[in-house]
Amino acid sequence: LKIFSGHSNPTIAHEICHHLGIALSPMEISRFSNDNLHVQILENVRERDVFIVQSFTHPVSDHIMELMIAIDALRSASARRITVVIPYYSYARSDKKDAPRISITGRLIADLLQTAGANRVLTMDLHADQVHGFFGVPVDHLTALPTLVSHVKDNYDTSNIVAVATDAGGAKRVGKFSTRLNVPMAIIDKRRVSDTQVKQGVVVGDVKGKDAFILEDEISTAGTLISTVETLLAAGVKSVHAAATHGVLCGPAIERIQNSGIESVITTNTVTIDASKQTDKLTLLSVA
Ligand code: R5P
């Protein structure tokens, strides 16, 4: 078994290798002067079971292209099986035709991975479970839920917690979270206004005086999160916390979290969080 890493998240790749007791295999990724990417596998992979770790993080297109080229290089080098490990599959959010003349890009990228030569995909907490079906190769769809739940159990008093879904789409996920924590749940009615803004209304469930724990697949601009925090505080909760598998934290996310009434945010290392994004409110767990 050999493990390679692209540029998006070498930290989790190294941690995975550490758990397995093997070294990360060398792969060189460079750029020609005309901006074309160049990937070279630096050891023999003939008939090997090979894994490449790459999250779809900023710059997403470059990271996807690195992965496609690496898969093709491994295939040309006669690897026996190529598994792509995509801790964060960002294009899972492009999963339906919700406007005229648009691409279902989550499916397109799945097709391209297969065309490049991926034999299997291992990913985590896709935005919607059904995105799994976009892939023509076997998918292991893992979840960070056990990691998040055990951290909550170990670090919070769960006796007054209500688990909160920011919209109806997240209800199933939050249902599993609330079952594992043995706490009640609530759902908020959300409408997306733009890429960075949402509007929320009715809270379905009893939240007054409770410690609200929001569960999300990802926190991107934190627009959803902050709107949920405001809705919950207006509804009379005692405190608000959040857990999300993917801490994308782009644009105004950190500032929004810092300036909001949320007390703590837990996320995982499916996405690398650089030092400039670290805040006292943020706890980073490993899912390696
Ligand atoms: C939306 O349906 C997702 O579950 C997340 O709420 C969303 O992707 C987060 O994006 P943002 O942080 O930009 O609101």
UniProtKB/TrEMBL annotation:
Gene Ontology CC: cytoplasm; ribose phosphate diphosphokinase complex
SUPFAM superfamilies: PRTase-like
InterPro entries for the chain: PRib_PP_synth_CS, Pribosyltran_N, PRTase-like, PRTase_dom, Rib-P_diPkinase
Catalytic activity: D-ribose 5-phosphate + ATP = 5-phospho-alpha-D-ribose 1-diphosphate + AMP + H(+)
One of the GO biological process terms: purine nucleotide biosynthetic process
Transmembrane parts of this sequence: none
NCBIfam families associated with the record: PRK01259.1, ribP_PPkin
GO molecular-function term, one example from the UniProt record: magnesium ion binding
Record organism: Gynuella sunshinyii YC6258
Keyword terms: ATP-binding, Kinase, Magnesium, Metal-binding, Nucleotide biosynthesis, Nucleotide-binding, Transferase
Protein name, entry field: ribose-phosphate diphosphokinase
Residue span(s) of domain Ribose-phosphate pyrophosphokinase N-terminal: 1-117
Pfam family, one: Pribosyl_synth
Catalytic activity, EC: 2.7.6.1
Superkingdom, natural source: Bacteria
